[in-house]
Amino acid sequence: MAESLYYFVPREPSKAGRHAANAITALALLGLLCVTALFALRSQVAAWLSNPELAPHLVALGLFLALMLISAVFEIVLISRKKPGTAAWAYALSDIGRAACFVIPAALAFGLRGVMAGAVLFAATRAAITAITLWREFGSELRIDTRALARQLAYALPFALAVGIEVLHLNWHQYAVAANVDAATFAIYAVGCLQVPVVDLIVSSAVNVMMVEMAVAKERSLSAARWLWHDTMTKLAFMIFPLAAFLIVMAREIIVLLFTSTYAASVPIFMLWSLTMLASVLVVDGVLRVFAQTKYLVAQNIAQLVIVAVLAAPFLGIFGLGGAVLATLAAAITVKAAAVIRISRLMAISFSEALPWRRLATAAVCAALATVPTVVVSRTTQLPPLAVLPLAGIVYAAAYSLLYYAVGREARPRLIQTSPTTT
Q1: Do 129 and 214 reside in the same domain of the chain?
Q2: By the number of CB atoms within 10 A of the CB, which of 19, 182, 294, 355 ranks highest?
Q3: Of the candidates 144, 172, 194, which is a domain's last residue?
Q4: Which among 281, 254, 283 has a CA at the least distance from the CA of 267?
Q5: What Cα–Cα distance (Å) separates residue 300 from each residue in 158, 167, 285, 307, 310?
């Protein structure tokens, strides 16, 4: 319901307050349900987790969850109202406040009860700030609208289902490996699938802003919407492609530094896993949400889950541990390609016009070529991994910047020439 605001608020600014109120009401009801369930089942849940002492704290946990659900709309409304700077400050201050409310009670030895009290205090403060901010933003327009609610639910429920399925297909490869190997081997695989949080941070931030801008541009012309999509992909490619290339060539140093040489067998898995972040550049899900294709997202994620489930076990047998990653990668490429075809039809363009092929290729070439001096420096120096990684990073950044200036400069004027304003 909170995510639905990215779709409705930019399109219907006059009803933005009503859409926000609908989202808050739905989330508050869900939060109340969580509190009630955790209170009624606190003993059973604590027993299920083999920790009876947890029972008295579950109500506080439910309150924290309920209040955080209510405030989930806060930054989303700000971004949807084209205030990304304010939203960024809100995210930063919120995270600092949350850390303080968790850490200070623990540091003062107030125990788990004190930590939970700090958590509830933080969530209540955030919910109050959300309420005050939204009232100042919308005033009397912050009220429930049942007609708008029906439309929001029609958008949000399929999207919620799609996200639930996405959680399954993103983690299926780990289930498949865990079911076929012993604990020690699974540890090797899990380390190889090391998450790089900065990728999700960059992509999700870019997509959120893109959806808001595209919602307005789409009403003006499909070509303007396409330009925004291409512009977002281009910028992401010039950040994520070099990151993936650097992680691949420096995989051994990264794994040994973080997990010691005991996990050297994780290096080839990590190299394959780094390739999976390349598909995130296409940001097809955000475009499909702009076109209200949430039901298609459900079908897409089901297809991806089926592909991973079918391929994981056979690929494990053929390619070893890396086969599970290859199955995930094959599923991602297949559904992304299908989504690009779907988007090209929605935008009434050919498949060849759907992606900024030249700019993506330029980013890939620059990222690949910049690895050459990086490999030379990292393999010839005798410094320890803790010193090699920063040095290699500096060399790679310098090489990539020079290549981007030399090779990619011809692509930059086109971004201006084909901007939505010019179109």
Answers
A1: no
A2: 19
A3: 144
A4: 254
A5: 12, 13, 10, 11, 15
